[in-house]
Amino acid sequence: MKVLAVSDTHVSDRITLGGASPTVDGRPLVLEQARRALAWVRDTAVKHEVDLVLHGGDVYDEPRPSPAAEAVVVDWLIEMTEIAPTIVLVGNHDRPSGGGTHALEPVRNLAPDRLIVADDADPVFLLPAVGRTWSRVTRNRSMLRASDDAELVVFPIPYPDKARARAAAVDADAANLALSGGLEAVLADCAQQTGYWRLGGTPCAILMHGTLRGASFGSRVAPLSDVQVPAAQWWPAFDLHACGHIHQRQACPGRPDLPGYVGSLDRMDFGEAEDVPGVAIYTVTRGEERPRVDVEHIPYPGARRYETIDLDEQPAPDVLEPGETVYRVRGTLTPDDHARIGTLVRSWRARGCIVSNQTTVAAEARARVDVSAEDALSREALVDRALEARPDLAEHKPAILEGLEEL
Predict the structure, then answer these.
(1) Residues 207 and 293 in one domain
(2) What is the largest CA-CA distance in the chain?
(3) Same domain, residue pair 316 and 294
(4) Which structural domain range is residue 23 located in?
(5) What are phi and psi of 81, to 5 degrees?
(6) Of 265, 299, 333, which marks where a domain is finished?
(7) What pLDDT is recorded for position 73?
(8) What is the pTM (predicted TM-score) of this model?
(9) Complete DSSP assignment for 214-264
């Protein structure tokens, strides 16, 4: 049996590329990129002849997606359910922070028996094909007569509804602590349930969206402000592991021998420039004691490219080739160099290049002036010194002084 896992697709026509919002044929480029990425997932599922598709949450980038974004997701889900049964988890981006209906509710009944929208922790059973009947997914346990009737049992743990917890807690930290304890209890219960299915040799999978305690965002440890779940104790109870939320693919914290995060399908910003997004293919083989699970990560070849032009290491190129690569410029500059780079950036954009609006230089590189204690007492003297470095702003001196007065 083969299972494809994908996560954090963040389909949207509202997100930006480093602050820029390029279009292609009048349509947001980010939505076209999402469409291409999902088409690649579809083709990968066909190529590997998968028996089940898992989505680890954050299908959308916002809980109220646009009709255009919804159309992309609906078309993709219809295609995927024709290939294999599909389970889609609700992530934090799919769920409104203030409570209410999540973004995946409209597709709940899109493909009965072939699509499950998992917004709670009830297990999902993959049933084998019988005669002319397709393989299917169900939450109806009465359809199983014994512990070996299912091909696979999936235990979903979606991102929690934080609005309810916040309403009952004294502050956000207390709410997160309560949610963390509650999610660990759910995870522990799921782990204990695997014992029954193991009697029949049925493989068990954990599909979760959240922060595993000790997981890292790049070089940083997960922030305490998020809802963290201690997972290392319970992770070994499952045979297949697929977690969403953190975009960097990594093992379960505390259990480096077991998979943790699938990773995102595409890069979202410069912080993910070195990540290798894609999907995971799990090959599950039943054994006498425990199923054997082999995992293969398949990189998405069309992932967005984010490149930083570091002026401390190389001079800025006069020309950049137009395309979908997102650029930014950083480095230490003199005031004159800063103006020259600004002109270059404008010329790159005029050629159709995507240059981040976050393009900056280090703080020490900005035009600086030494101001004496006496001068500092005078707003006008301070502005005059600053305008020596930026004469192009001299005509705005009255407005600058007025703004300082208001501050």
Answers:
(1) yes
(2) 91
(3) no
(4) 2-299
(5) -70, -20
(6) 299
(7) 98
(8) 0.85
(9) T-EETTEEPPTTS-EE--TTTGGG-SEEEEESSSS-EEETTEEEEEEE---
